[in-house]
Amino acid sequence: MARYDEVIPPGGRGKVTIEIDSSRIRGEFEKKAIVWSNDPDRMSVALYLKGEVKAHISLEPGGYISIAGVKGEAPPGHVEIINNHESPVKLTGVDNDLPDRIKCRIEEIKPGFVYRLEVEDISKNEGHYTAHLTIRTDNPEKPEIPLIVRGEIREE
Amino acid sequence: MTKRISNISLCFFFLVGVLACISQSLAEKKGEGPVIYLDKTSHTFPPVFEGVELSHTFTVFNRGTASLDLKKVTHS
Prior knowledge:
The complex is a heterodimer of chains A (156) and B (76). By secondary structure, chain A is an all-beta fold. Chain A is 0% helix and 63% strand. Chain A has two domains: 2-53, no CATH class; 57-154, Immunoglobulin-like, CATH 2.60.40. Chain B has one domain. Chain B contains one helix and five strands. Chains A and B meet through strand 2, strand 3, strand 4 and strand 5 of A and strand 2, strand 3, strand 4 and strand 5 of B.
């Protein structure tokens, strides 16, 4: 989003303010804005903005787990939950919308900073499913972290 | 012979004079109308956590003799 002075008198100065919503950006970014004016020799001027946006808490390798295999033998999936702040974070729980299909277990790797979430298939029947997990934390900036689990379970 | 050299010299100085006038006229014309100038066209934000609103203001100067109209700002 941009705000700007529409008219600048001869010899005067004005402002062009560029705003960036970092909630949709992760990692390093580079943005370009172009100012269009009535200067006949320089109708457009490019502005460049660079930076880096860090996640409060990140999931490695990502916010998705896939479990596939024979019923009762499918290998569990897992993600690491990494706290990128300098102060520790507590995981207060995991909400699971398919408790008859999957079971979750959290292990502390580096207390307050690195956790491992293991997801095990407990399906009684074959079939495909998509479960939505919500990892709850005591970080007010990031109280919930969504995680999707896709399962593909077959009979022997 | 001397007259011919004198004529050539006169032509040369006349040509130089004409070129100087054209050059000055162009220079004056360039300053006419609006002239946009920015002393900085890039900015690097320090690293931030997600959710922080990032904002930066650039200063735009009008070094011309007429109003500078900023028509729009597009971004990618």
